[in-house]
Task: structure prediction
Amino acid sequence: MPTLRIINGTLLTSGPRHQVINGNLYVQDGRITHLGKVPETADETLDASGCVVIPGFVQSHIHLCQALFRGAADDLELLDWLKTRIWKFEAAHTPESLRVSAQLAIAEMMSGGTTCAMTMESVHHTEAALEVVAETGFRAVVGKCLMDAGDEVPPGLRETTAQARTESLRLLDAWHGRAGGRIHMAFAPRFVLSCTETLLREVAALAREKGVRIHTHASENRDEVALVERLTGRRNLAHLHALGLTGPHVGIAHCIWLDETELELLAETGTHVLHCPSSNLKLGSGIAKVVEMLERGISVSLGADGAPCNNRLDAFTEMRTAALLQKMRCGARKLTALDAFQMATWHGARALGLENEIGSLDVGKAADIAVVTLDTLHAAPHPDPLSALVYAAMASDVRHVVIAGRVVVRDGALTALDAADVRTQARREFAALAVRAGVA
Result:
């Protein structure tokens, strides 16, 4: 692979030994080999003058398959949002429409400095999303959505327990570790209300047997929590725990409506919380107790969730929103800029089980890097580069993005995708999808 120098920047390393380093960075064979002082020549040099150089953002909860529905499911609460819009759209996907949706999502995320995401796809056509991840150079933990139960689920999303298990295992065998190790597979049961206890128990056992992640949702909405308790006789987290779906290999999106016992359960089991502040606000779901979680040592990372409930896939928005919400809840000293930055990078890598590979700028780690200009009116005069990054910078300030040593955004332009073509295809595919879904 070509060698790469990034010079004249301010390095914000993130990770447990976070540092601010004024200097350079060197990449060889897809990995960081030098920080600060670097060799004088390389196959390519990126000038980071006026910029911060950061580990690429790791979004721990995304739905690539939903990017095509952006703006078509607004102003609804969670269960109505799912039943009247999202499930109908997902059921109407074809391999081509899902492929375009994945291209749209990845193009947006890479352009905004996100280099890796954990994504829950739909019930069918997950292979189309995997192909896009492989082709674009993105890094992802991907799970096929599992749904073998639930009220008002359209026929196009229905599957038996055996079908859910068989297809997930097939994808695991075919794709786990592919694309030079950039692709990892996970089991992705949607949530308690759409999965039988049999399926959830099988997922818990298979994940441990295969050594892969579990990615699910829980306690996002008060009505959802009440329905789970009525159905199972247990609180949401207690039910997942009883079935084996907690632990350091498990990431649970949202976790808003938790009691003290459930918070302690997350801490005791090492289960990861995948916090989606903008989505939680837009769906009117609530505000997670992130400060209390962090004080208990719970791992909390960030994700934009899906484009129809955000409507951006923008890590900058999630960092800023997460910090501001917790300051409103618990005081201005809580959830600092460093906390938010770590949640968007290092803690995201931990949630995906990739903290030894990505999430911080360290010698030996994969070169997943974003270069963000602070030479803008909205960031000036930026005496504290970390403050400027978290509270002032925007996705449009990203200048260069590198994944596994490959430049995927250069001077603000995608190298693996044509942005104009992606937009054109997205408009075409959504028009046809809306007709198939019956919501045109």
Remarks:
- The chain has two domains: 4-55+368-412, 57-351.
- The first strand starts at residue 4 and ends at 12.
- The mean pLDDT is 97.
